Amino acid sequence: MTRTIDTGTDDLLAHVDGNVGVITFNRPERRNALSEGIYHGFGSALPVLAEDTDVRVVMVTGSGGAFCAGGDVKGMNEAHKAGVGRPGQPEGLEDRVAYLRHRQRAVSLALHQFAKPVVAALPGAAAGAGLSIALAADIRLAAERAILVTAFAGVGASGDFGGSWFLTQLLGPAKAKELYFTSPRLSAGEALELGMVNQVLPDVGFDQAALHWCQDLAERAPIATRLMKENINRAITCDLATALDAEAPNMIRAMSTEDHREAAAAFVEKRQPVFRGR
């Protein structure tokens, strides 16, 4: 059973399928390049999915065979030729900086800090800021045909939406610099070998396979999964003592739930546990 979430825009769609919230970039004519509508759509959809107790996993994907091409370079060129600013964006330097900071936090930071697991499902190309947003997810699933490219070097830009931070965490600074400076087009297989994606799935039936993967994840204990994400996100920037001190209360919380008691009983009874998020 599915139900639609009103994002306030056609550029970004959202619905709930069982225990999975699905967010879809929906500008196929521009390879799902970013837009004001997309930014506002995330601002509308994420709080709803966060509050929905039926939603245990969020999947972000794209329509029309692409994930997200990042910035709308065609739109940028049109604005440059016309000698005008881009619609909906401020013109002053400081105002533009504040605008970008706000948009980055509303998308990349919001996905990284989202209390439930976020899975980016890449049916095709993820480029520039689109790749950065994919990297903000906890897990990345890619179709065999998917291409991943930092892209910024090719358009004379330095990068945004956190890609430099996420790539450095995943691959280390030397490899992150190489990918930013030279901007190679990575196949899904190459990205898998580097550790940029977690799994590569067949092109045929990719959408359903990715959704099924998310549904399987949603069947796991949601409170424990939320606390795992919290622990691992913290571990990126804290020392061991801080990590240990924070793991302890989370462990006690998780083992005080009905889900833990159900899992223990299911283990003894040799059956699959049924988690209810309590």
Structure characterization notes:
It is a single chain. The protein has 278 residues and is of the alpha/beta class. The chain contains eleven helices and ten strands. Strands 1-2-3-4-5-7-10 form a seven-stranded mixed beta sheet, with helices on both faces. Helix 1 runs parallel beside helix 3. It is globular.
β content, as a range? 15-25%
Kindly report the name of the CATH homologous superfamily of the largest domain. Answer: 2-enoyl-CoA Hydratase, Chain A, domain 1
Helix content: 40-55%
Number of helical regions: 11
Q: Secondary-structure element order, as H and E? A: EEEHEHHEEHEEHHEHEHHHH
Name of the CATH architecture of the largest domain? Alpha-Beta Complex
The gyration radius over C-alpha positions equals: 20 Å
Distance between the termini: 22 Å
Could you describe the largest sheet, including whether it forms a barrel? 7 strands, mixed
Q: Mean pLDDT score, rounded?
A: 94
Low-confidence stretches: none
**What is the approximate shape?**
globular
Quick summary:
With 278 residues, the protein is of the alpha/beta class. It is built from 11 helices and 10 strands. The longest helix has 21 residues, at 93-113.
Primary descriptors:
278 residues, alpha/beta, 2-enoyl-CoA Hydratase, Chain A, domain 1, Lyase 2-enoyl-coa Hydratase, Chain  A, domain 2, seven-stranded mixed sheet, three-stranded mixed sheet, 11 helices, 10 strands, 49% helix
